[in-house]
Structure formats: structure tokens, C-alpha cells
Design a protein that fits this description.
458 residues, alpha/beta, 7-stranded mixed beta sheet, 8 helices, 17% helix, elongated, binds uridine-diphosphate-N-acetylglucosamine, binds calcium ion
């Protein structure tokens, strides 16, 4: 049977106390809705519709347009109203409609697939994914009749004290036949404590109309944990962190302290790599085999080859670092840096939008920006590429095997040929030819017996 997916993501999430729409709050460096979409992308569906409202433009920008249709819920009148916003775009669709909340990032494609197949087997008009939890506070409770069939879902605020004792909760995932769904949604009211249109009411409508309803128990109750406040956000992050770190450790990565190691799911790390504490590896990143990272390192959207050594307190973003490179301690590798095989970038160095050739060394206290360094270049301590005149940025090009004396100021645009040398303390403003030596500093003067002269009369 055909399948359409509707993801509800229009709410602000009042309990988050934030200007940022709830579904964009991040879990291990990614907005929580990205996880729900990942799971959805792994199941085959004919259409994916995301209902947006609060921060709609930001949500669209962050999750992108590929394979997704958006509908806007202008006023957040409740989950039932939100789901109904997708009725127009899906009016011609005949099949099952899977409705998911955007706020449970732990849900997996495996559970969704199982839920859909059980719904299909049951022949129900609507199925709801449920879970039995120790503490059901905040969730809608699943009310079953004497025969164990699902009768309705009652929200906590509308529940009697007896109903509140029910520990089977509504996870917020539903699968319904399109022929039933849109009719049912047009029949719900907002007569409840929150004066909202509850999506959950379609369950009662179905059972009142003699339609079969299935309450399908999820096999992993953790997956169903929703995020309504920042405490739940931290709980979910801890669960996902453990899941991700355990999988990496099983694949051959050593983590000295997994509890303080934060890695986005999907980051690939090679075997025999060791990660020291307080390290974050986020986004579209990869680390090769046999590397050593940390402690206290931040790596984001960067690719590091095998044998990388990133020492304490480095910050690396949007860069490519090839094989056997040593970085740090205390190094800032900014976007668009390319560090080639065997290079060494040492302490208190900043690299930006530059390539550093194989075997080159920038070991201490330097700024290298908008530069291209060839192979086996040695950059002395305190060297700076003066790349900015207050209006524009200019390039520095340094040939293979060049030797840059300590404390050289390279005033860009500038080009140094292969094997060029600069004298320590030079300010270089003109190109240096291949093999040439450039010295640009005041000649040293000696004044004899300077100390012996009386400097003032007492
Ligand atoms: C909802 C369920 C509850 C269930 C819980 C599971 C209802 C009435 N209640 O409660 O039974 O146990 O999820 O986590 O459905 N949204 C919109 N537009 C709106 C309102 C909400 O798009 O007008 C979106 C939110 O962005 C969110 C999702 O719907 O992604 C769920 O909304 P939320 O307010 O978190 O519902 P809960 O109170 O958690
Ligand atoms: Ca919720």
C-alpha cells in the first residue's frame, strides 16, 4: 500500500522557554527534527510533508527542500489542526498516512517499519504506537476497554486521577487510512482543557464509528521519549550519546571517557583511534584509523585522514586534514583549511582558508590566512600573513621548500618562490624569487659603552 508521511513541526514548544522553534534545538550538534527525517528517509514512502509554523523559514532552511513538501500552520491550534493542514496537499493521495511528531529524535526507521507493517496486517482504520513507561507524566494515556482494545487517548490535563495512573502512553506516532483520516480530522473539536484540536481524538472517533483501532506497543520505550523541555532534551542527548559511543567502541575506537565524549551519529571513526575526554566531533566529520584526538578538542564538518594526532585544546571546523598530520596543542583550524600528508601545525597557530603542503611545518605562534604553502615549507615562530588591508583579503603563495624566518610579516599579495628564505624579523612586501633571500628589517647598530654613560644627574 502507498504511504505518505506527515511530520508535525509547527509548535514553538512553550516549555522550552526559547525563541528557537523546538524542533531546531540540537541534540549532539544536529537539530532534533533531522533525526526524525533521517528515520523517515530510510523507509520507502511516496510523499513526505512537514507541517511548519513557528520559525518556518528557519526550519525549511535548516532541513532543506530535497524530497520534502512543506505546509504552513499559521496558528498553532493543536496537533489535530496541524495534521489537518496536510489534507490539502494530500487530497489526491490514497493509502496509509503515517503521522509523526517532530520532537522525538530517538525514533528509528526499524521501529517505524515494524509499526507500519503491523498496522497493515491489522486492517485497522487507525493505529497508534504506544509504550509502557515507569513515569508517564506529561504524555497522553492510552485508555483500553475490558477486552484490551484501544478506546481513546486522554491527555494528562484532561485525565481523571484514575486515568493518570495508566502507564501505557501515546508516543505520538499514528498510521491511518487516508479514507478515514481526513474525515475524522474534520470532525474533532477543541472542547478540552487546552482548547486545542487534539490529533489523539481521531482514536475515539474511530472506535465510536466501529472502526478497528490498534494500539501497537513499541519494543524500545526509549525511542518514544519526546522532548518538551530542556531537561528531557538533556536526557535524550545522553541516551543518543551512549548509543553512538557504544557503536563506535564496538567498531574499534577507544574512548577514555565516553561520558564526556560527544559525537554526532553518522560520524565515521577508524579503528584504533583513541579519543580523549571532553572532545566533540560534530556534523559531517570523519576521522581515519589509528588517530589520537584530544583531550578538549572540537571538530566540526571536517575530514581527518589516518594517523592524525590532534593534541589538547584544538578547534577545527570545515577543513580537510590528510594523513599523518599533527595538530596542536591550542590550534585553531578555521574553514577551508587543507593540511596535506605529514604536515605539522603547532601550538598557538591559526590557519584559515589556506593549504599547507605535505611535510610542511608551522610549529609555533603563527597566523596563516588566504595562503598556499607548498611542500616541506618551514614557517618560523611568530610568522604572520598580513592578508587584510581593511577592505579586501589578499593571497600569500609560498613555494616548496621555502624557509620563513621567525617573526616574518608577509604583506599580501605576495609570492615567494621555491626554496626562498626570509630573514628573521623581516617585513616582506615584495615577491622573493626562487632560491633568494629576503631581509626586510633595520640593520643592527652598536653603541659602545652605553651602560657606562650617566643617564641622569642625581
Ligand atoms: C502529544 C500528544 C500526547 C503524546 C505526546 C507524545 C496530542 C494532543 N498529544 O503531546 O498524547 O503522549 O505528544 O510525545 O497530540 N505541533 C504542531 N502544531 C500545533 C501543536 C503541535 O505542529 O498546533 C507539533 C509540535 O511541533 C510537536 C508535535 O506537534 O512536534 C507534538 O506537539 P506537543 O505540543 O509536543 O505535544 P505533547 O504535549 O507532547
Ligand atoms: Ca511533545
Amino acid at each position: 500500500m502507498k504511504l505518505a508521511v506527515v511530520i508535525l513541526a509547527a509548535g514553538l514548544g512553550k516549555r522550552m522557554k526559547s525563541k528557537v522553534p523546538k524542533v531546531l534545538h540540537s541534540v549532539l550538534g544536529r537539530p532534533m527534527i533531522a533525526y526524525v527525517l533521517d528515520a523517515v528517509r530510510k523507509i520507502s514512502s511516496d510523499s513526505v510533508v512537514v507541517v511548519v509554523g513557528h520559525g518556518a523559514e528557519d526550519v525549511k532552511k535548516i532541513i532543506g527542500l530535497e524530497g520534502i513538501s512543506y505546509v504552513e500552520q499559521e496558528r498553532q491550534l493543536g496537533t489535530g489542526h496541524a495534521a489537518n493542514c496536510a489534507s490539502g496537499i494530500l487530497s489526491g493521495f490514497i493509502g496509509n498516512v503515517l503521522i509523526l511528531n517532530g520532537d522525538y529524535p530517538l525514533i528509528t526507521s526499524k521501529s517505524i517499519k515494524k509499526f507500519i507493517s503491523e498496522h497493515e496486517k491489522s486492517g485497522s482504520g487507525v493505529s497508534v504506537l504506544t509504550s509502557v513507561v515507569e513515569n508517564p507524566t506529561g504524555y497522553g494515556r492510552v485508555v483500553r476497554d475490558g477486552l484490551g482494545d484501544v478506546e481513546r487517548i486522554v491527555e494528562e490535563r484532561d485525565a481523571t486521577s484514575e486515568e493518570r495512573k495508566i502507564t501505557e502512553i501515546n508516543s505520538g506516532a499514528y498510521c491511518a487510512k487516508s479514507s478515514f483520516l481526513w474525515d475524522a480530522l474534520s470532525g474533532i473539536s477543541s472542547r478540552n482543557k487546552q482548547k486545542e484540536y487534539y490529533l489523539t481524538d481521531i482514536i475515539e472517533i474511530a472506535s465510536n464509528n466501529g472502526r478497528k483501532v490498534s494500539g501497537i506497543l513499541a519494543s524500545d520505550s526509549d525511542e518514544m521519549l519526546g522532548v518538551n523541555d530542556r531537561i528531557q532534551l538533556s536526557v535524550i542527548e545522553a541516551i543518543l550519546k551512549k548509543r553512538t559511543n557504544d557503536a563506535l567502541m564496538r567498531s574499534g575506537v577507544t574512548m577514555v571517557d565516553p561520558s564526556s565524549t560527544y559525537i554526532s551519529p553518522g560520524v565515521n571513526i577508524g579503528a584504533d583511534t583513541t579519543i580523549y575526554p571532553h572532545t566533540y566531533i560534530y556534523g559531517d566529520s570523519r576521522i581515519g584509523k589509528g588517530s589520537t584526538i584530544g583531550p578538549s578538542v572540537w571538530i566540526e564538518d571536517s575530514k581527518l585522514g589516518d594517523g592524525a594526532v590532534v593534541k589538547s585544546s584544538c578547534y577545527i571546523t570545515q577543513s580537510v586534514i590528510k594523513k599523518d598530520v599533527t595538530i596542536g596543542p591550542f590550534t585553531h583550524v578555521r574553514p577551508q583549511a587543507r593540511i596535506m600528508d605529514g604536515a605539522k601545525i603547532g601550538n598557538f597557530v591559526e590557519i584559515k582558508k589556506s593549504s599547507v603542503g605535505a611535510g610542511s611545518k608551522v610549529p609555533h605562534l603563527s597566523y596563516v590566512g588566504d595562503a598556499k604553502l607548498g611542500k616541506n615549507v618551514n614557517v618560523g615562530a611568530g610568522t604572520i600573513t598580513c592578508n587584510y588591508d581593511g577592505y579586501d583579503k589578499y593571497e600569500t603563495i609560498i613555494g616548496d621548500g621555502a624557509f620563513i624566518g621567525s617573526d616574518t610579516m608577509l604583506v599580501a599579495p605576495i609570492r615567494l618562490g621555491r626554496g626562498a628564505t626570509t630573514g628573521a624579523g623581516s617585513t616582506i612586501t615584495k615577491d622573493v624569487p626562487e632560491g633568494g633571500l629576503a631581509i626586510g628589517r633595520a640593520r643592527q647598530k652598536i653603541i659602545e659603552n652605553w651602560r657606562a654613560k650617566p643617564r641622569r644627574k642625581d
